[in-house]
Amino acid sequence: MLQGGFSSVLKAGSRAELLTEIVGFTHRLGFETVSATTIIDHFRGASEFIAIDNTPSAYRESFEDVSNWVVDPVAQHCKRHSVPIIWNQDTYTSVGQGERWEYQARFGYRTGIALALHLPEGRHFMMAVDRDQALPAGPTELTRMVADLQLFAVHAQDAAQRVLVPRPPEDEIPELTPRELESLRWTMEGKTAWEVGNILGISERTAVLHVNTATHKLGCVSKHQAVLKALRLGLLR
Questions:
Q1: What is the pLDDT of residue 194?
Q2: Dist. CA 110–CA 70, nearest whole Å
Q3: How many C-beta atoms lie closer than 10 Å to residue 43's C-beta?
Q4: Is residue 116 classed as helix, strand or coil in its secondary structure?
Q5: Which helix (H) or strand (E) holds 188?
Q6: Are 18 and 164 in contact (CB under 8 A)?
Q7: Contacts of 237 (CB under 8 A, 6+ apart)
Q8: Hey, is 57 helix, strand or coil?
Q9: What's residue 149's pLDDT?
Q10: The domain 5-164 is classified under which CATH number: 3.40.50.1980, 2.130.10.10, 3.30.450.20, 3.30.450.80?
Q11: DSSP β-bridge partners for residue 123
Q12: Which of 25, 162, 165, 190 has minimal Cβ neighbours within 10 Å of its Cβ?
């Protein structure tokens, strides 16, 4: 297992520092290029893509064309699954995308590993490492690579959410009443509405009302999503 890169990426305080950490890890893992993309699904409108990468300049236009993702088998796998994909030329030729592989191979994208983390609130984090040389033939070394990438991606997505996704201005953060916050806090602890009511000295119906109102103010569709958003906004700790 690679050491140092997993925790150090959490210390990144800027986009440049985050890129340095991600590229450094990628090179130590044995790959030349990397892309780490934060994807935010908006309820209305197109999804937002925030990428950090060391894509060669000659390939950048194709890389940034989101329409290419619709037919790219690696991107489509990551869109639907959380299991990493180890890809090569066969991955593309098997779905009739041989010419796409031939084109990207000119820039060093011959094989690689990609994965996606599907998070609450319509957020996703996709990370892909690529290289020109074939991957190890032995399963032990390849399994180690995948495991290291998975562990690093968990840390990198946390840093990317903090560095790349701006926090709403204070005047845009919903104002929750003390009772609504208390109800959410006890919900976070796994308490039922009946238990929350007993703890706060209110009726079960009122406890449900507080949670539902907080959920609505936060723009969420479930109390669990509301708890996660409140944590991200710093309303709960």
A1: 95
A2: 19
A3: 7
A4: strand
A5: helix 178-188
A6: yes
A7: 231
A8: helix
A9: 96
A10: 3.30.450.80
A11: 40, 119
A12: 190
